[in-house]
Design brief:
Blueprint lengths: L1 H14 L13 E6 L2 E7 L8 H9 L7 E6 L11 H8 L3 E6 L8 H7 L3 E4 L3 H7 L1 H9 L3 E9 L3 E4 L10 H13 L2 E5 H7 L14 E5 L18 E5 L5 H9 L3 E4 L2 E2 L2 E2 L1 H10 L4 E4 L3 H9 L5 E7 L6 E3 L16 E8 L2 E7 L1
Parallel strand pairs: 3-4, 4-5, 6-14, 6-15, 8-9, 8-14, 9-10, 10-11
Antiparallel strand pairs: 1-2, 1-3, 7-16, 12-13, 15-18, 17-18
């Protein structure tokens, strides 16, 4: 059993190399082992390209005969953009297949298929780690909704800006670099109009080498300034608005190549629940909200948030802007309890990562 875990750990590490690049596909790593030696490895690099199992088997060549194959996610058994991996595994002469976790895609039934074809097959090795790696893909496959993360950078007393609106920079360069890494791993970053007006952000992962995500601005009446930084790359910009927006303004933005999404309205504002549902239809599988207190609280109240990252700097601001707006909590026993919190240091700051 110990060696199974060891090799699965390596397959998961290999899969991580595809972070931010494989969406809407999962991250998959595969290792081929024969007589205690790794003879082949591969990971999925990008949607539409060869799957990890195919790359690992190609790497192993003839050594794949009578080998054990480790893969963090159930191999596909259907014809998609590429042929089924189960066929390749059988053809290569693999004897045993060890799988981390079931694929929630209803078209995938690789575990049963391989068993049916006479291979020794085991599933559920390092299942927890395998699920965490692909938590966005798993949620998207099950619900057709993106996995939503809120990121907050605040002072020790819970402020994200001073009372004049100054917020640059509360946290350290190390924390900002970590956030840029997170940006490069999600499909899209979301902010509200106020953040655009106050900070004129770029929302790029410029402190790391990585994929530049889509930018989503929640703007109920289309008040976004035409000169803001986000306008420089219209192909990367989605603006969410309501029927309150002027039709000719919508047209102008669309002509620039910006994707304008009309949502239902809630109290005259963009309905976040409806927006997230529509973004799922655009094959956006993961979103990081980097907005202000209002966007944070409306997303939490709309029950669309899966996870929260709170960076806390060892600073006191006093009167200023709070991190999260009104959640309607009047009694402590009605507070939202975060699940599985993990705490670590990033530079001088503390990071708490938890699920909602």
């Amino acid at each position: 059993m110990i060696s199974h875990k060891k090799y699965m750990e390596l397959a998961i590490k290999l899969a991580e190399k595809g972070k931010g690049l494989t969406s809407p596909n999962p991250m998959v790593g595969c290792i081929v082992v024969k007589r205690g030696r790794i003879v082949g490895k591969g990971f999925h690099r990008k949607a539409g390209t060869e799957h990890a199992e195919v790359l690992a088997l190609n790497d192993a060549g003839k050594k794949a005969i009578n080998s054990t194959l480790y893969v963090n996610l159930e191999p596909c058994s259907h014809w998609g953009r590429t042929p089924p991996c189960t066929e390749k595994i059988v053809e290569a002469g693999v004897r045993e297949v060890i799988i981390g976790v079931h694929d929630p895609n209803p078209l995938v039934d690789g575990f049963k298929e391989l068993k049916f074809r006479g291979l020794k097959t085991k599933i559920g090795i390092l299942e927890h780690e395998a699920k965490k790696l692909n938590e966005a893909y798993i949620k998207y496959m099950r619900t057709k909704r993106p996995f939503v993360v809120i990121k907050v950078a605040m002072s020790m007393d819970g402020r994200i800006a001073t009372k004049t609106g100054d917020s640059k920079y509360i946290t350290s360069k190390e924390a900002r670099t970590y956030v840029h890494q997170l940006r490069s791993e999600v499909d899209a970053v979301m902010v509200g109009l106020n953040t655009v007006l106050r900070d004129n952000p770029e929302l790029t992962p410029r402190l790391v080498k990585g994929k530049d995500p889509m930018k989503i601005v929640v703007d109920s009446k289309l008040k976004i300034p035409k000169s803001c930084s986000l306008m420089k790359n219209p192909a990367k910009l989605i603006i969410a608005t309501t029927s309150k927006a002027k039709k000719n303004e919508v047209k102008k933005l669309q002509q620039k190549g910006i994707n304008v999404i009309m949502t239902k309205s809630k109290n005259g504002m963009v309905d976040i629940g409806d927006l997230v549902k529509q973004l799922g239809k655009h094959e956006i599988t993961s979103i990081m909200i980097e907005g202000g207190s209002e966007l944070n609280s409306s997303a939490i109240k709309a029950h669309v948030v899966d996870k929260i990252f709170i960076f806390t700097a060892p600073k006191l601001i006093g009167n200023g802007l709070g991190a999260i707006g009104n959640l309607g909590v009047n009694k402590i026993d009605k507070a939202i309890n975060l699940k599985n919190p993990v705490c670590r240091r990033i530079g001088k700051d503390m990071l708490v990562e938890a699920y909602i």
